[in-house]
Amino acid sequence: MIANTLLSLGLLFCVACRTAHPLPPADFASPGWRLRQGQAVWKPSQGRPELGGDLLLAVNTNGNYVIQFSKIPFTLASAQVADGRWQIDLARHSWRGHGAPPTRFLWFQLPRLLAGAPAGGPWRFTSQADHSWRLDNSGSGEFLEGQFFQ
């Protein structure tokens, strides 16, 4: 009886969950990064107010990218994909994982759409001759529209 209990406890302590660790900050000074800065308006969903702010998109030649939406002095949304891992931080919530990032977050859609990939799922992407663009989900009411200066 005691042996079974000790064995059960031992097995319980040997089993571990594998959670994704936070991604390290990207080093934009290292080779291969292209930074774009601009402004955008984000409406998180129906019934929530629009938020205006600054947008930073950094894309590396290896496919890694970082996108940040901020209203000085706060970062309102931040998404990063690096070496097969992803991370997103929105207000007080954070998600991390391995593999392809979730399609429900528009922050993971924008970099690939700007690179010319087709929109998928509920997302619609339009761009204008003046380099402005809009990404929206008519089902949820979420949208991001903006323009890069560089």
Briefly, what is this?
By secondary structure, this protein is mainly beta. The protein has two helices and nine strands, in the order αββββββαβββ. The radius of gyration is 20 Å and the shape is globular.
Task: Characterize the structure shown.
- This protein has two helices and nine strands.
- It is mainly beta and 150 residues long.
- It has a single domain (32-148), classed as Lipoprotein localisation LolA/LolB/LppX (outer membrane lipoprotein receptor (LolB), chain A, Clam), CATH 2.50.20.
- It has a nine-stranded antiparallel beta sheet, covered by helices on one side.
- The protein is globular, with a radius of gyration of 20 Å.
- Residues 3-17 have low confidence and may be disordered.
